[in-house]
Each structure stands twice: as C-alpha cells, then as structure tokens.
Amino acid sequence: MSTVSSSAAAVSTGTVTLQDVSRWYGHVIALNNVSLEIKPGLIGLLGPNGAGKTTLLRLITGQLRPTTGQVTVLGESAYDGIAYRRQVGYCPEHDYFYDEMTGFDFVTTMTALHGFSKSEARERAQAALEEVRFPLAEGSGTKPISTYSKGMRQKVKVAQALAHDPKLIVLDEPLNGADPLSRHHIMELCKRLGQRGYTVVISSHVLHEVEAVTREFILIDKGRLVAEGTVSAIRDLIDRHPHRIDVVASDARALGSVLVRQAFTASLHVTSERQLTVETPRPDQCYQGLPKLAAEAGVRLLGVSSADNSLEAVFRYLTGSR
Amino acid sequence: MSIYARRYGSYDGPIEPESSRILVIAETEVRRLLAMKWVRRLILMAFTPTVFLAAMLYFGLVVKKAAGFDPFSGDIFVYHFRTATWFVAVMMAAFGAAMIAKDVVTRAFPLYFTRPVSIRSYVLGKLAAIAVPVLGVSLLPGVLLAITQWALAEDLSLLTAGVTLAKIMGASVVLAGFASTVILLMSSLGTSARYVGVGWLGLFLFLDIAYGIFKAAMGTDSPLLDLMSLRQQLYDVYDLIFRGDSDGIPALVSLCAITGFCAAALRVRILAIEAKNR
Amino acid sequence: MSALPKLEPLLLTLFWRRSVWKPRSLLLLLLVGVDVLGAVFSGQVAPFGYRSAYDQLAADAVFGFLLPFSALQVGTAVVRDEVESGTIGYLLMRPLTRGSILLSRFLGGVGVVMGLTTLALVLNALVMGQAPIGELPRVLAAALLGAAAYTAVFCALGVVLKRPFVVGVLFLLFFELPVSRLPMVARAITIRSNVENLAGVAPETKTLGILMDVQVAPMTSFLVVTGVLAVAMALAVAVFERKEYTPDASA
What we know:
heterotrimer; A: alpha/beta; 6-stranded mixed sheet; 15 strands; B: 11 helices; globular
C-alpha cells in the first residue's frame, strides 16, 4: 500500500495534502515549497535536527499557518478548519501538561473537549491509558503529572492523542524518554493503527525503530522534501549512486581479481585478506553473480552484506551527512 | 583510546575566589534582565521625571525660589526618590518576582549547588543582579540631577556636591537593599512569578491604602503610624536623608530590620528548597 | 472562524481548576482578608469627601486595589498561562473555535475576580454594619461590570503582548489609579472612577474643591465601562483568531 505521494493532485484522496507549502519565521525559512499527500497507513517523518519536522507537523495540525501554499486535512483547511479537528490526535514533542492534574484527569479532560460526555470521556481515557500500558492500577492515575517520570509523561501524551479515536494521529518524537519496552510497545501500537487504516505520522530520529514498523517515509532536510515513499523505492531512485556491497570470502584477493572484470563492478577495494567491498550501480546483478564467480575462482564465500540497504544509509546519502 | 588522553584530566591551575561566583551569577542575571526590552524601557521611562525635575531646577532659579521651592535644597532629590520608588515597585513586580521563582520551578538549584557555589554567593549574586536595574532608576538619575544642581549653582562647591552624592548613594542603597531583599524572599516562596508580583504589589499598595484609611480615621500624623506603610517608610527615610527630618529615624530602623529579617528568612528558605531538591 | 463564540463549560471549569484550586490562590484570599481587616479597624467615621467609611473602603481598597489587581493577575493569565506552559496547543487542536476558547476562559476569569470582589464587599458591609444593604446590589452590579472591563483589558493585553503583566502594572500604577483621582472630568476616562460612580461610592468632594465637583452621569459611566469591555474583547478575539500560538512561534 502506497501511503505517500509527491504530487498533491487537484482531487485529493489523501488524509493530508500539502500544496507548495512554505513557512518562514521572519527571515528564516523552515519549510521550503513542499508538496505531498499523505494517505492512510503508518508514515515515518525523518530528518536531522532543525530539518523542519516539527514545523511540518504543526502545519498539518493547524497550529501554524503556511506562509504560502495550502495545507488541507480531511478536506478542510488545516489552520481555519474546525470540524476536522475531531479526527486529529496530536502528541507534542515537549512535555506540555497541566502539571497539577493526574494523568487520568488530563486525558479525560482532553477527550471531553472533543465533545464526549464525562462518562464516555472517562471510559475512553481509561482505555487509551491501558492501550499505552500506563500503570493505572499501580496508583499512578491518582498522582499529579508533575511527579511522573519522563516515560510516564510520554505515555500520557500519546494516550490523549488516541483517546478520541482520531483518523489522523500525529506523533512528534513519541519515543523520547520511553524505556525500551515502552518504545517497542508504542511502535507496535502505531503499526497496528496503521494497518487498521488510520493515518499515523511519526516523527523520529531513531531510524531503526521506525524502520522496524514501516517502510513508508518522508525525508526532509533544511526545510526541503528530500525523498518520500518506501525505502526500496527511495533506494531505487538513488541507484545512480554506486551501491556498496561488503563481501567476506576465504581469499579476498582471488575473488577480487574475478569481480574486477565484471561489467557491474564500478570499483573494488580489498580491505583485508578475507574482506573486500564492491561498489556497483547494479546491485541485483552483483548479488546473483557472486556465488557463481566465487566458485569459478575456487574461493569460499563466507558472507555478503550491504549497509546501503538500511534506512540510515539512504538517509545519510540523501542528506549528505557522514 | 582512553578519554584521559584527550586531556579531560583534573585541573591543577589556579581557582578564582568565591566572590567570582557571585559576579558570574550577577552578570548572567543582569544580562538576562537587560536583554528584556521592558527593563530597558522602564529605566528610560524613569528618566522622564528626572528631566522634569531638572527643568524645575532651572526654572526654580529663574523665578528665584518661587512658591517656597529652593532649587538648592534636598527637596528635588526627595521628589526624585519618591517617583523612583514607584518605578522600583513596578520593576520588582515585573522582573524581580521571577528571580528565584524560575529557578524553583525549573528545578535549577542542583545546577548551582552541585558546583562549589555557596548559598551566600547565590543570594548575593541574585541580589546584586536585581539591584542593578533598581540603581538604574534611582542612583543614575539622582546623580544626573546632582550634577545639574551643581552646574547651576553659583559657588560650585565640591564639598556640597560630594555630600549630596553620598546622600543619593545612601538613599539608593536603602531603596535597592530593601526592595531587592523583600522581592527575593517572596520570589523564593512561589513558583508563579505573576502571583509573586501581585503579592509584592499587594504588600506595597494595600498596606499603603490601609495606612491612608487609619490615618484619616485616627486623624493623627505619627511617625510610628507611618510604619504601617512600606511606601511611607521609604518616603520618611528620604526626608531624613535629604531634609534632616528626624521623624524618619523609626522608618530607617524599621526598613533595616525588614531587610535583615528577609535576608535571614531567604537563607533559611533556600536551604529548605535545596534540601528538598537533593 | 466567523461563527459566534459560545461558552464551553468545560473550558471554564478547566480555567478555574488551574487558577483557583491551588495553594497560591490563598494569596488573593489574603488580599480580601487585609481588606476586611481594614473594615474592622477603619471605624465608623466618614472621612472627608466620602458619604461613609464603607464607601471609602469600597472606593479605595476594593475598586482601587483588589478589583483591578486581581483582574490583572487573572486577566493576563486567560491566554498567557496556556502559552507559557505550552498547553495552548492542546486547546487549539480541539474542535472548538478560538473565539469560544477565549470567551470561556475570559468568563472564568471574570468569575474569579467577581468572587473575590463580592466577598470583600459583602464582608465589609457585614463587619462595618453601616453599609446601606439596599444599595449592595447596585454596588455589586457595578463591581461585576468593572470586573468584566478590567479582565477584558488584561485579557486583551495577554493576547497581544508577550509581557502583559508589565504593561498591566504600568497601566494601573501610572494611569488608572492616579488619573482616577485627578481633578475635573479627566478622571472619567478611567475604569475605576466610572465603576465608583456607578456603584455610588465615588468621593463627593476631592481635595481641590470646586474643580473636582464635576459629576459624570451614571449612564455616561455605564457607556464608558461597557465600551471599554466591548472594545477590549473585540480586539482580543480578533487578534486571538489570527495569531499563532506555539511555544517557539517567535523563533
């Protein structure tokens, strides 16, 4: 299922559509002419610090008005629309709370502001807190938020974003401060929601954790949309750049002498007696040909791997960071 | 590679004395305060009455002590300090109130006290920081007035000018010391700077209103009754310093006692907060 | 956004929960306590210029201090509290118009100010035993109008400015309080003087004699105070609907 599409069509079917959106803070540009469409599913929003992730999320949730362009969420203008907000859940990056309230009270109040009755809001708050594994039964529900640990605050923030059952869930760095078990659980929850047809947008800098639950990404850097789509699609787009394949063999030099004659090999580096790195613009041919070539050379193939297949490598390549 | 190879070893060089830490705290806070445009605006606004008083000095000379106003008496400084008192009241409510409250609410105490910074240094640093804008609205315009007065005088006596400057400094120290210590104590008691600010204004204005009501009801004008109002106590001290009015002695004693009490209470309060944060 | 703002009871109670049910709210009650203490000790003699000691206490302590300063505290918090704590985002993300959010919180603020003022005025009347009980509704109605006008002004400052408290203190100390005791009709431009006039507790004669005796008609006072209220609220709503409130929006 393709969840992200770069051309914001005139007749949009996406949950969120950004058309030529730019956002300036005084003389600083935070987002530069971004057009994209987000469809149901789980999407990871990635980018280095200061890339414009939070600005993009604030534009989507109607907290900021675009300087130019248009942001449409569920058919309404994000900044001016009201009714669509019933279908949006937002978890901010920072810990903003009514500190004197208990976690349960906070989620209940935030849910009731969506128009639910008090009892319905309570039930939903309880369910949402249980869903994020907030330790309600251990008495944390009766303590003020000011006494909570970072991880518990994170759970409360996520719970208030889910309790009213929104169609669009926007989570800004939801894994910050959560312990490993909670991180895993939150990501699994997001994955399930994405599979159920909700639109879940997660911004994060923990690439491998996001990569573990979705293959759909939006990559931004310096306010510009760098890439979008699945990791493999993005990888295909950048295949003009040679793909690095690390090979471990019984005799790296002998294997290298065979590989260097192949058309798919752009360059080759023997790094040790048993290790070599091939750079190739056609990785599929290289993977297919390696066992046969090793046999011809009388070399035992011990391992083949490519760091370039990981999201981090794609990210590093696209953002130009080392 | 060992981290020590990067020369993160222990430092054997000279260490600055304790007083340097007071200056670090004060300098940081003063920079923060002066970066706020409303602090700068208030200091500038405090010069408006000074300009008016300087004009009074000039025209007072022209009309030759008209309407009983002697341009070379201390009256001009009494008027100056009375207006400065109100600017200081605003400054304390608006900016002094956050001085410790923000450290309490952001739990910044460990940042100070896990370093070799004593409570005395912390308090003195904060005190010095808040005193700077107070002196900016009291001492600085006062000195300018004194220079104007000296320049317009016929005898150009340096001795008289020196005595006047000493008086101005004395009045400024009383005002700055009292206001800074009281607001710091109040600031350490709360977490919301706005509530602390309203509390300070409550103390300052409400006691004054109550004093006005009592004075009217009792129909007397006693220096002891003046002790009800913080504003009136300050006014009495200005009268004592610039007019030699001995009725201001109880007020001076009272202000010194309040300042001392607040300083002691502040120390106890910060010890308590630090212990709680530990 | 053009829909008429309406009261959201939950937002009103949320405001009260945050601003009233806290230990620091005792400070505001303490101010009422000091006022009542003034009532206990101020005696029964009407000072020069006032009809009664009750009138003086109402004019000086309640309308001259308690009402405007509690309105300063509460009014500036209507929007600024949420912005400073970063929680404004939660409210703006809910399916409520910005006008409704502002109106509900404003009414919550007026409720707090009015509660304190009513407490002080009624306790003063009971303690002093000389208040014209029959006139109390008039005094309270004027106080309500004053509470709404002051809260609206400070609420508007909180919507427009980053540091509304500083401007609010300057407004009270250097405009409202001194100008309301100025000679002639100049004092009629202050909220305090008009509220005193509506309540019927304004000093009849001021220190400068005949110059002070210009009386302002109650209807004029009513129009001035309601005018201030309407203009301040219209400004607050207009700016609140357009302004972006994020913790680092100015970055």
